[in-house]
């Protein structure tokens, strides 16, 4: 149900845009938003301002949201999706080899699981720096920096022979790979308007979820046939190929650097795409707001904490983090549980992750298109055409973007919760392995549907700093996931699989009322925050004058 007011059809506010008036010199007069059909709201019903679609010259309909065409956007998103593959694959490719590593280093399973916990801590922390840096200096150079760190860490892990070195290098590996997740969603925000953003972020998350599934499978195969060190040489080769592709072909997209793509980046930040004559011609003729968007003067990793403290963002982050924590706990427990129950070796444990990855990939594609359909539905309800919606200003005004995203997330949350309960009791009763594997399929579909929606929503409500907003998502998710990964095995031992996963599912369901709160009051909180930010900017300009 849409809490923004579907029950009061007489209170709907339709918004359209005046067509440009032609003066004697045939010049267009800047567009202005016009609210149609505005009637007083019934007593006790919150009033909403019209959904603002344009804002001065920066949002005129002759200025495209991005100068990249559809095929270029797809190519950019493809590179981003491949880049997003490495953080989750590095975490999950490691799972099937946990028992082997514990034996080789002569440490307990609890201690070897600590390497997973530390990986996830840095997976949450590092994007606070790389996200803020990419919002300031650009996406492309930070991508390249992340891959250099990541490749170096993998070489070190493949060559080391001490547990302490493994722990330190896993932290460095996590720092290099996790930055690509934050930057990936930011790139989508750079090139795709809110109306088409759901499908594109779905494709980006597809790279991550394929990493989750194929990582464990590939890790099992490599560890079983070539030894666990081959896992990290494999990652070195794959990351090296992707790093070269990004360095050569990935264009800068950060709006603080290239605006909507119509501004040429600095000479040191040029890709081969920037040097094409067709690109130069398009930039010369493309309408632009003039110059680069205002960038922050310094890298501020504490911006992530400021986002976490915001009312709306904190609820979205908590819901996303709790779901991710349960998902991480499940993945961390699979190796020990399936070895104990079914006697599986590294290879067979890796194969058990395939249902999760397949369903997550299907979810990323389907849910992304469903949420874009839901965006168009809400736009039509407000009298906004799809074409106009695609050109909407990055400031969504009072457009109910929270309802657009959460209406899709809630059914996915319910599916994941029910699947967790059934999965846990199937393990408790020691059924055939087919039962838990089927439930893993539905868990992957539901959980990744929630991830996609809440990740898109964070980018929507913080369009001026999408990488930093995604870094906040990563910080909360990974730190909660690190804690869950550390306690899940003792919890299953104390409570049994059935009650442990039932408890996780009940915690999931507690997130549903929180998402309803975001749908109900999120637009008002977002408007208040934007107004406060504009007031601070105006005050700062006044002091400078």
Automatic annotation (TrEMBL):
Gene3D superfamilies: MFS general substrate transporter like domains
Compositional bias of kind Basic and acidic residues: 1-25
Protein's membrane topology: Multi-pass membrane protein
InterPro entries tied to this protein: MFS, MFS_dom, MFS_trans_sf
Superkingdom of origin: Eukaryota
Short name of one Pfam family: MFS_1
Transmembrane segments: 75-95, 107-130, 142-161, 200-219, 231-250, 315-335, 347-371, 408-426, 438-462, 474-493, 499-519
Main location: membrane
Subcellular location per the Swiss-Prot or TrEMBL entry: Membrane
Keywords from the named record: Membrane, Transmembrane, Transmembrane helix, Transport
GO molecular function: transmembrane transporter activity
Domain annotation Major facilitator superfamily (MFS) profile: ranges: 76-523
Leader sequence residues: none
Gene Ontology cellular component terms for the protein in this record: plasma membrane
Spans annotated as Disordered: 1-42
Protein name: Major facilitator superfamily domain-containing protein
Source organism per UniProt: Parachaetomium inaequale
